[in-house]
Amino acid sequence: MSYSFVLTGGGTGGHVFPAIAVARVLSDRGHRLLFIGTERGIESRIIADAGYVMEHIRIGALNRVGFRRQIRTAGELPFSVAAASKILKRFEPAAVFSMGGFVAGPVMIAAILQKIPLIVMEPNAFPGFANRHIARYVYRALLSFQSTRCWFPAAKSEITGLPVRSEFFSVSRKSEGPFTIFVTGGSGGSRTLNRASRESWPLFRERATNVRIVHQTGTAEHAALAEEFAVLGLDGEVVPFIRDMAGAFAQADLVIARSGAGSVSEIAAAGMPSILVPFPFAADDHQKQNAQAFQDAGAARMVLDADMNGDRLFREVQSLRCDAESLIQMRERVKQFARPGAAERAASVMEEAAASAAR
């Protein structure tokens, strides 16, 4: 049976790309879809490029913003909920799927008020602001961490993981060549990781270590970093952006990265040892919670942003490079966080909710 579904989520690629993964499964199963987002958000471009229809509402952030922005957003909220309600009444979805981000708040409130089944995907160890406040009203919460279940009714939550491209699950362990570290702060780069990596390069050169360095910098600082790397004559490459992240993982022995939900999910799927450096200004400090969960499980090491510099990066790499047992242990333990089939399961829950509501 074919149903109509609404999906929402935006603000960052980490909110949008998993929602698109779920949309693809639903579309392949013959369902009618509509996205709700903001016109100025990243979701507006990405969803259009993916070939889906989006309608827009106006809303700003409430969490980790200044007081004036909070007041402005609070004033916008009733109008945003009303706008979302009109869209839902016109489209008549059988269920609503939320991936989070500030645009999701009004849509979730509108769905709850209209008694439309609401399915939320919460990929972080600590739930986002909106999900914490609507937890008891959800039809189902799809989670990535066991620790998050305490925030939702037990009967309404399950561990599915975050949708991750299939190629990450087939990454094979590198078996030859120099010890390779892959440093990535995401597509936009990370100033902290860029600085720490640059500071570590003379140390690797002075100690004549057999290490290859691959660093994704983002575009803003790429030219200066690439020039300095070339002058030092180290083995490796400095690039602004890598499209084939699974391929980059396959060529690495160790990943140094931020700990957003997308990053840690890909690391888990690929079974990669990692040093995680949480972004300290993430909403509700959720990146630290993610990294802490991995570290507590022996699946990664965590270094706080304030503590990460060239010397610390060099020492952490050298410690792990000389400790094959710890690397093997990380590879094994990180797999407990890998969840294939997350998009398919989310789509099935949507269908279950729609069938239940139709009875």
Topology, pairings included?
Layout: E1 4-8, H1 13-28, E2 32-37, H2 42-49, E3 54-56, H3 67-91, E4 95-98, H4 104-113, E5 118-122, H5 129-134, E6 140-143, E7 157-159, H6 166-169, E8 179-184, H7 191-206, E9 211-216, H8 222-232, E10 236-239, H9 245-250, E11 254-257, H10 261-270, E12 274-276, H11 286-296, E13 301-302, H12 310-321, H13 324-334, H14 342-358
Parallel strand pairs: 1-2, 1-4, 2-3, 4-5, 5-6, 6-7, 8-9, 8-11, 9-10, 11-12, 12-13
What would you say this structure looks like, in words?
By secondary structure, the chain is an alpha/beta fold. The protein folds into two domains: 178 residues, Glycogen Phosphorylase B (Rossmann fold); 171 residues, Rossmann fold, CATH 3.40.50.2000. The chain has 14 helices and 13 strands. It has a seven-stranded parallel sheet, with helices on both faces. A six-stranded parallel sheet has the order 10-9-8-11-12-13, with helices on both faces. Strand 2, helix 2 and strand 3 form a beta-alpha-beta unit. The mean pLDDT is 92.
